[in-house]
Amino acid sequence: MKMHSLVSWLSDDRIDKALKNTEFADSPSYQGYLKARETYLHRSLEQSREDLVFIRGNAKIMASLKALVTHEGWVHLIGNMLIFALFAIFVEQRIGFFGLILLYCIGGLGSNYLQLPFLPMGVRLFGASGAVSAVIGAFAVYFWREKMRCLLSVGFVYNRMILIPAWLYIGLFLLLSDVVGMTGVGSGVAHLAHFTGFLAGFIFAFMQMDLFPMKNNFLFPAESKLYYDAKETQVLEEKMDLFRRIYRLNRESFYSFRALFIYFEKHSCLLANFTEEDQTFLTDIVRSCILYPEQDEKYAIAREILEKIPLTWNLSSLDLRIGPEELIKRAEQFRLEGDLIQTLRFYDMFFAKFAVHPQAQDINSEIMKIFDQVEKFDLEIKIQILEALLVYNDNHPDTQFQTQIRQLIHQVHREEKNAS
Fold first, then answer.
1. pLDDT, one tens digit for every residue, the chain (420 residues)
2. Beta strand pairing call for 123-126 and 2-5
């Protein structure tokens, strides 16, 4: 949003303040200046009304709409449109095309009229920044917990793409573009219009979410619809296609993917029966679940998905591209929760990929401790663990703990014989 003076020196009241209490105040030259200024401002106002220029004294709705599409130059226009595209592509998927147009107009017109009382006479207001700020405000409500890519750069020494929360990204954006600008760096910019536009989008999004609520686990209405369509179909090919479409919308739709893996577990789906495209898709989901970093609701659902992966699946055969630290971290998390089967599974994946890792000996010692712990369980629990391990071992002939499984089988047989 730009403020542009038709003739800046005529609209600058600093001259009046400087001469008001001096001997020059009554001079013919100064009186002539005041008369010329008044005449010019009157004529410029009349011209602004004819040309639909948004200015104090001409607050017509058509003038405000024209201001939204008028820019100072190509740099101003392209800059606004690039920022708009960055945020609008996601907001549009959330509220639809007509919702986005409504948000754009409300934010743009609202910011124009709230800025208008603070405009000096003779200064015009134009640009789409208020409307763009409204879209950013709505984005901040809809996606504040999501991650955004940001380039961390220190000259030519260090450049790296990092993921930061959307609330931090937008906060830094507002800080650098408006808060710093209001200190004097960004002269000629209608910072108040930016803030009011952002606030309008913020309120609009909260009202929209209240009127049309959606499960927190879904980012877009389309994602929700696809999820329920996928639940209804029992044809695996159709189900996979629908979930792939969900994945294209939201790569961390763990709520939906949990339902998919519950289906796999229930129907004993075999990994070898999936097409190469489906295996790639499943690889991406499993990798996302393992690598998800934050200890929040999504993390818990991601962990549940990993628990639902059938034991008949050899995850080591997938191109997961997971480092040893991530595998150890997940194994330790499962062990803290008492899920020894998944703990052993992730330790086994660690050995399949990183057998010569410096921590391999320590992990092997942890496996021995787990089996020592299992040996102390009641016979019924021990049999349940053994049955799961046998299913896993039958589909993973090179497991790291085959010897311990055989020892556990002998112990179970001895205890059953003694019990009989």
1. 444 444 444 445 555 655 566 655 666 666 666 666 666 666 666 565 555 666 665 667 776 777 676 767 788 788 888 888 989 999 998 888 999 999 998 888 877 777 777 666 556 667 788 888 899 999 999 888 787 877 887 777 778 888 788 888 888 878 776 665 555 544 566 677 788 889 999 999 999 888 888 777 788 888 989 999 999 998 999 999 999 999 998 888 999 999 999 999 999 899 988 999 999 999 999 999 999 888 888 899 999 999 999 999 999 888 899 999 999 999 999 999 999 999 999 999 999 889 899 999 999 999 999 999 998 899 999 999 999 999 999 888 888 898 899 999 998 988 888 887
2. antiparallel
User: What pTM, to 2 d.p., does this model score?
Assistant: 0.69
Structure tokens at 272: 């070898």
For the chain, the three-class secondary structure string (H helix, E strand, C coil) is: CEEEECCCCCCCCHHHHHHCCCHHHHCHHHHHHHHHHHHHHHHHHHHHHHHCCCECCECCHHHHHHHHHCCCCHHHHHHHHHHHHHHHHHHHHHHHHHHHHHHHHHHHHHHHHHHHHHCCCCEEEECCHHHHHHHHHHHHHHCCCCEEEEEEEECCCEEEEEEEEHHHHHHHHHHHHHHHHHHHHCCCECHHHHHHHHHHHHHHHHHHHHHCCCCCCCCCHHHHHHHHHHHHCCCHHHHHHHHHHHHHHCCCCHHHHHHHHHHHHHCCCCHHHCCHHHHHHHHHHHHHHHHCCCCCHHHHHHHHHHHHCCCCCCHHHCCCCCCHHHHHHHHHHHHHCCCHHHHHHHHHHHHHHCCCCCCHHHHHHHHHHHHHHHHCCCHHHHHHHHHHHHHHHHHCCCCCCHHHHHHHHHHHHHHHHHHC
What is the distance, to the nearest Å, from the Cα of residue 223 to the centroid of all Cα atoms in its chain? 15
Sign, Cα dihedral of 243, 249, 250, 255: negative
Count, residues in the chain: 420
